[in-house]
Specification:
The chain is built from 7 helices and 21 strands. The mean pLDDT is 84. Helix 3 runs antiparallel to helix 4. The chain is globular. The protein folds into 3 domains: 127 residues, no CATH class; 125 residues, Jelly Rolls, CATH 2.60.120.260; 111 residues. A hairpin with a 4-residue loop joins strand 18 and strand 19. By secondary structure, the chain is α+β, with helices and mostly antiparallel strands.
């Protein structure tokens, strides 16, 4: 005999006070967030332990000396707005400043200088009240034309009270060096974090290399932001994967890795977008309301444009064969662009000039900030890179630039 179908039983209600079950995947995303935060904390502590030269929480405040407080003891110098512009004399350059501070409070000294050639010897000099007659020196590293901070903690001569600092530059200076001051830094964790943040958010103006890439902040960085973000994502993903592997569940790893990567990408892209906004505003202030010539003169290569404009007036109307030379590949390419439609030769990849045997009478030779080119006005002979001299007429000169006609 058939029995009527019994209605389905109602779902069991949760017992009073019981916590509803949370889907397992929610715990996984929470664990991923915890892994990321833990990685950031561990990475920060590890980085500070490696780079902090002194106490993490120093009581001393930074000391700064402006360019007007600096004295040029050797070489020549002049103030240009907010910087001291110095050029080398027969004995190089020596910049001094009077100081009085305790050495143990300031383990690092930072000279703010730019346009420093990589092939010169730069040293910091100081005297102390502990041994007033002794002159102490330490090499100052140069990166991308800028001086890096000098960590003097642990130096046997960095004792007592520092009674004077000096910066010595020994070597040829093709262009003057710009010095914006010097500072003594306690280098606590607050200083280090502030320095890194300032490097990441520094305004990166359009330059001759912008078309090939951007730095992501200041030209010189101790810890580039993309490197930091990539390291954090990799370490957080490995930590989470190890934890989930231990629990026997790793199905969400690909999607979670994509989320971490996208988050890091958006953070780095936000910095780039903010810099683009500032670049746009700066371009408007620089070029708005100017005609085409004024815009060229206001651009980063305005001095090059002005020289090429004067050189074109010395060139024949018919296309001539011209050799464009410069140490910087940007100036070689940009100079050739301004010289068109003349028949311009330049090497876009290497700083080379054809041998003197390959030039002929009637050729023109443009030199712009190029070392190794020598001209003797008495004999009117031109030579470059130690090669055989050729007969040439000097048609035009400018600071760091010249135009010659081969005879």
């Amino acid at each position: 005999m058939a029995h009527p179908e019994e209605p389905p039983s109602p779902p069991l209600a949760a017992a009073p006070g019981a916590t509803p079950e949370v889907p397992r995947h929610d715990h996984r995303y929470r664990d991923a967030l915890v892994a990321l935060l833990a990685t950031c904390v561990v990475a920060l502590l590890g980085y500070l332990a490696l780079v902090a030269p002194g106490a993490w929480f120093p009581t001393a405040a930074s000391k700064e000396w402006s360019p007007r407080m600096l004295a040029v003891a050797r070489g020549s110098g002049a103030m240009d707005r907010d910087a001291l512009i110095v050029a080398a004399g027969s004995g190089g350059v020596l910049i001094t400043v009077e100081t009085d501070f305790r050495a143990t409070d300031y383990p690092a000294i930072a000279w703010s200088a730019s346009n420093v050639p990589d092939n010169v010897d730069v040293r910091m000099v100081w005297r102390t009240d502990y041994a007033p007659a002794k002159v102490n020196t330490v090499a100052v590293p140069i990166v991308a034309g800028q001086l890096r901070p000098v960590v003097v903690a642990g130096d046997p001569g960095w004792v007592g009270r520092i009674r004077g600092l000096a910066l010595a530059i020994n070597g040829p200076l093709a262009t003057p060096v710009r010095i914006a001051g010097v500072s003594a830094r306690p280098m606590g964790i607050a200083d280090i974090i502030a320095d890194r943040f300032a490097e990441w958010t520094a305004f990166e103006r359009v330059s001759g290399t912008t078309i090939n890439g951007v730095n992501g902040g200041s030209n010189v960085q101790d810890l580039p932001l993309p490197v930091l973000l990539a390291s954090l994502v990799a370490l957080a993903a490995l930590l989470w994967y190890a934890l989930e592997r231990y629990r026997g569940r790793t199905a969400l790893f690909p999607s979670l890795l994509a989320v971490l990567f996208t988050t890091a990408w958006l953070l780095d892209d936000a910095r780039w977008s903010w810099n683009l906004v500032r670049q746009t505003l700066a371009a408007g202030r620089t070029y708005a309301g100017r005609d085409w010539r004024e815009r060229h003169l206001a651009a980063e290569d305005g001095a090059l444009f002005q020289f090429i404009e004067a050189a074109r007036a010395e060139l024949p109307a018919e296309p001539a064969r011209i050799f464009m030379t410069a140490d910087a590949h940007y100036f070689r390419g940009r100079g050739a662009y301004h010289l068109y439609p003349h028949n311009v030769y330049f090497d876009p990849y290497r700083n080379t000039i054809p041998q003197s045997s390959l030039v002929r009478s009637g050729d023109y030779f443009v030199v712009y900030q190029r070392r190794g080119v020598q001209y003797d006005p008495a004999t009117q002979r031109l030579r470059w890179d130690g090669g055989e001299p050729v007969s040439a007429e000097l048609l035009l000169t400018a600071p760091g630039a010249a135009l010659f006609r081969i005879r």
